[in-house]
Amino acid sequence: MGRLTSDARARAEERIRAAMDRLLRGDIPPGGRCDIKTLATQVGVNRTGFYPKDGKPGPWQHLAGEFHRRLAESRDAGEIPDPRDSQIARLKADNQALRRRVTEQDAAIASHVTFRQRAISRLAAQHEELQRLRDALARPASTGTRTATLTVLHARQQDTQP
């Protein structure tokens, strides 16, 4: 490839800046992204011209810097020109929210499991106490042994009426 004349270089820079504006507005071609590769493809220049080679700056390296700066500014302003990048950002936020919900639900489940274990333990203790009391009631009192005296309470007629 031969050297560019100043006129051809100026026209190429205009085409690159126009393509840069389109990409940064979100006018991204199918299969493309908001990046240097797509910018070079849109303009029809070799993308290696946007990068330094052997310590020498590329002919379009200053435009690559401008493109990256403008892209960073638009992202800082909350604008994401590439729909895939915005989708990735949205999915990351959704993922973070879902992880937070899972952590909260795991804590709630652990709390419910602890409560259930305590309730079952209390019910088992109450059941054993009721069984012990029923057995004591059913057992005939033998003379000469020390047994607890149990009194069966019956509801009185007046206590049951409203």
- Shape designation: rod-shaped
Arithmetic mean of pLDDT: 84
Q: Sheet bearing the most strands, described?
A: none
The termini sit apart by 107 Å
Q: What structural class is derived from the secondary structure elements?
A: mainly alpha
Strand content: under 5%
How large is the count of helical segments? 5
Q: Your description of this structure?
A:
The protein is mainly α and 162 residues long. The protein has two domains: 76 residues, no CATH class; 56 residues. Helix content is 64%, strand content 0%. The chain is built from five helices and no strands. The N and C termini lie far apart (107 Å). The mean pLDDT is 84.
Layout of helices and strands:
Blueprint (H helix, E strand, L loop, with lengths): L5 H20 L10 H8 L17 H16 L6 H56 L18 H4 L2
Helix pairs in contact: 1-2, 1-3
